[in-house]
Amino acid sequence: MNKKTTRRLLWLALVAVVVGAFAWVFVPVWTIQPFKAQTSEGLNLSYTLRSWSRVVTLGALALAALLVVLLWREARWWMKAALVLLLVPVVTVTWFARQNHFEWMFKPLERSAYVAADKVDFVGDEEMVLAVEVNGDAVAYPIRQLAYHHVVEDTVGGLPVVSTY
Amino acid sequence: MWEATTDGRRLKFHLTGINNQNFIMEDEETGTWWQQVSGEAIHGALKGRRLNGVFHDELTFATWKRERPRGRVLRPSEDNDAWRKFSERWEEQTAKMPVVAQADARDKLAPRAVVMGVALNGAAKAYPLESIERQSPIVDKVGGAPLVVVLGEDKKSVRAFETTVDGRELEFYVKADAGAWRMFDGETRSEWDFTGRALSGALAGRQLKKIPLLKDYWFDWKLYNPQTAVYAFNTP
Question: Which of A27, A55, B145, B216 has its CA 20 to 30 A from that of B60?
C-alpha cells in the first residue's frame, strides 16, 4: 500500500471515530427528550450506549489523538486546521459523557436540611406537601421543591427513603 | 415515595432521564434505571426489581402542621437559588404542556386531568379530582374492598380509607358546619377526623386503614394502570 492510500485510510478512520463517538453520545440524548415519546427499545439502546459512553469516548479520544499525530507531520496547513477541528467534537463528547445534563436543568439537593414545623416560614399554608411518617418521625416535603429537585434522599424513622415527584 | 434500599443495600438516586413524561432515576451503586412513578427497574443490573412504596399523604401544609405539630419540614437549598426561579405556578404551567402518549378517543378524561389513583387488591381505579371536589365523600369499592375517598376541610387534601371495621362495612358522610370538619359513619354515628381516627361514639379510638393514593395526570395513571376503572360522575 502506498503512502497516499495509507493517509487516506487514516483520514477515513479519523472521521469514522469522530462520527462514531458523536453518535454514541448523541443517540441517547436525542431519544430521551422531554416532549418526545420513548419506546422500550429506544430506552434499551440508550441505556446500553450510556453505560459504555465514558469508556467509549475515552477510547475514541485516544484513537483520534493517535490518528491526528500520525497525520500531522506531512499535513499542509489547512489539513492541520481540519485535524484540530475534528478533535473538537471528540473532546466535547468525552466531556459530555461525564455530565448529567438533566441535572443542569434540575439541580440536585446535595445536603437536605430540615426545620421544625412551628419554625417554618418558607411554606405557605395552602401549599401542598408530601407527608410521611415512620416510627413517629413525621416529615413534610414541599411539593414545589420536590417538583424541582425530582429526587430527595432522607432517612425517616430509621428507614432510608427517596422522595420523588 | 420509595424505600431507598434493595437487598438491604442503600441506593443513592439521581435524575437521569425521562420516559414518556415520567422521569427515570439512576442509582449510583449499580447504574440501574428506575421508573419514578412505578418504582420499577426498567434497565440495568437490577432490571425487573421493584422498590417498596412508603405510604405518604399529599396535604396542605396547614393540615399537616395541625396533625403533626412536632414534625420537620424540608428546607430549601441554600446552595443554589435555582429552585426559587422554578415558578410558583409550575403546576399550572405543566398542566398546559403537550402530552406525548397516545390519547384514546374513548377516554372521557382529558390527558392532563388530575386524578387520585387507587390500586387495591389487584384492581385500579382513578378518581378525577374534580369529582372528588364535587362529591366528597365518595363511597366506593375497589378490588372488592369498600372504601371512602374524602376531601379535607382545606378543600385540597384528599385521603382514602378502607371502611370495613370489625368485619362491618361502614358508610360515611361528612359534616362541616360549626367547628372542625368531621366524618360520621351511618352505623354507629361515631365521629371521625380527617386522619381516620374515631374521636367519639361506639367506635371511639379506632383507626381506619389509610389507602395509598397517587395524585397523577390521567395519561400517566393510565399508562401504568392500563386496566384502570374510572370513577364516573353520577350527578343528576
Answer: B145
DSSP state of B180: S
**CATH fourth-level superfamily of B76-236:** Rieske [2Fe-2S] iron-sulphur domain (2.102.10.10)
| pLDDT tens digits, B134-143 | 998 999 999 9
Query: Where do the domains of chain B lie?
Result: 5-43, 76-236
ipTM value for the complex: 0.92
Query: Which own/partner contact pairs does B90-95 have at CB distance under 8 Å and 24+ positions apart?
Result: B90/A144, B90/A147, B90/A148, B91/A147
C-alpha cell read off for B108: 372521557
- Contacts of residue B31 in chain A, CB cutoff 8 Å? 51
| Nearest CB to A147 within list B90, B98, B100 | B90
CB contacts under 8 A, B 47-86 vs A, are 54-62, 64-65, 68-80, 82-83, 86
How many alpha carbons lie under 13 Å from residue A18 in its C-beta half-sphere? 21
Angle made by CA atoms B107, B111, B113, in degrees to the nearest 5: 100
Enter the pTM of the model. 0.91
